[in-house]
Specification:
The chain is of the alpha/beta class. It is 57% helix and 18% strand. The protein has 20 helices and 15 strands. A hairpin with a 6-residue loop joins strand 14 and strand 15. It starts with a strand and ends with a helix.
Length: 550
Amino acid sequence: MLKSLSISNYALIDQLHMQPSSGLSMITGETGAGKSIMLGAVGLLLGNRSDTKVLLHEDKKCVVEGLFEIGEYGLREFFEQEELDYEETCIIRREISPGGKSRSFVNDTPVLLDFLKTLGAKLMDVHSQHDTLQLGEGSYQLALVDAYAQTQPELMEYQKTFKAFRKAKASYEELRQKAIELKKEADFNQFQLDELSSLSLVVDEQSELESTQEVLENAEEIKLKINEMLDLFQEEQFGVVQGMGQILHGMQSLERLAHKFSELRERFQSVLIEVKDVVDSLGNEESKVEIDFEKLDKIRDRLSRIYQLQKKHGVNSVEELMTIESGLADKVFQFQNLDESLSVAEVELKEAQDAMVAAGGILTQKRKNCFAPFENELQGLLAGLGMENAKIQLEHKVASPSIAGLDEVELLFSANKGGTPQALKKVASGGEFSRLLFAIKYLMADKMALPTLIFDEIDTGISGEVALQMVRMMKEIATRHQVICITHLPQVAAKGDLHYFVYKDNSSDKTVSKIRLLAPDERVEELAKMIAGANPSASAVESAKELLLN
């Protein structure tokens, strides 16, 4: 429910504040005074696009703020999904800066315009006599049928099966496309896999092969150099080891003469041990080095094949080749099991489709079951609004599966006796549309989430008993919903719980629109002016008083 509305610096409005009734509030005023401008400002709260042209003072920002009580609307989960703090008192604010930047806030938290549009649709329903496009849309008409027939459980079940069908179809199509690609590449993938598999690649083998190749290629020279060094170390009279042994013997003699040489002797003895170990290692290595041209040829051949495949696949290691081999093996496996995978996916798709069609059939039947009562009830309401010969017909067509179901619904209408119901855009006039839309709003008020309804001159083109019947219906809606009505008919304006008057103020440099809540005596005067003009007669005043009493 809208508790208060504040507008500043919007079009002709400098400052405006109103607190509508929780029931039925009426807004009247002369043509061009700014009644519809107010609706434009309300539209900003509902997520409509903004424009700097709406600024009354171009150097100031425009601010539109609405305070709503939302405790009874079940919106806590919606707020939590959007990660917004939920409060039963919700403040929506929209700002337009002189530079054209628009900002939206919910409880002082910045939000995107799409969120504001979604939230606004849950809080307010604005309808004017020109609002014909929405009613003419098939999706809106289908939503009316669903609301009237209370198909929410069946629709949710269908939508669950539709999503499952869509997922199964996407999986099948993806697999089918992959099958086409795999078939094209099958022979080539198998050839590449065989080529890699024939090598039986092993992790880290490339570095080991390259090291072994290096030794084999230089085996003769390596053995020669090692033997030369061993001769130098081990020559009986002048070898390095023999000489170092003599030096060690001398140091041991020094140590016996003076203990200070103990450290030097120990250090030299360690060096001698290390040298002997190096000599032993060289001997071992020399014995291992073999001159094997056949083995060398095999290693060269294997490395050559590895290098070729690395160049072919654009990689630099055996490990990367093994990764490619694994991927190719997976593709070959998929291809070899393709028919079976496709068969399984096709069965799953058929099962999902059957489940969707079954759920869609239940939904379709429940929708069709409401056609006759919907048509009869709406025709009865239209008769009460002065359209005794109006005829309503719901036409059903089978539609391609969508999130909305398997149905296409069109509302056909005829206002004249004997006329054949046709699409709304072909047969309904402005006044007829107003009454038809009002009757639909009345019919759907308790079936759709319409917390606050705003009617903008929906009574255009009607008068007398029809107008009285319309306002009686408005008052009935207002017992369960907040209703705000912009009207030009005194018999309608008189039935509101509150009466606001919009007027132009020319006292300053710029003409501005203002609004004020009328006191009882002011209300009588305004109704009298609506009946008889600017200078109402005594009888007009009495008629105004009578309208307020009845």
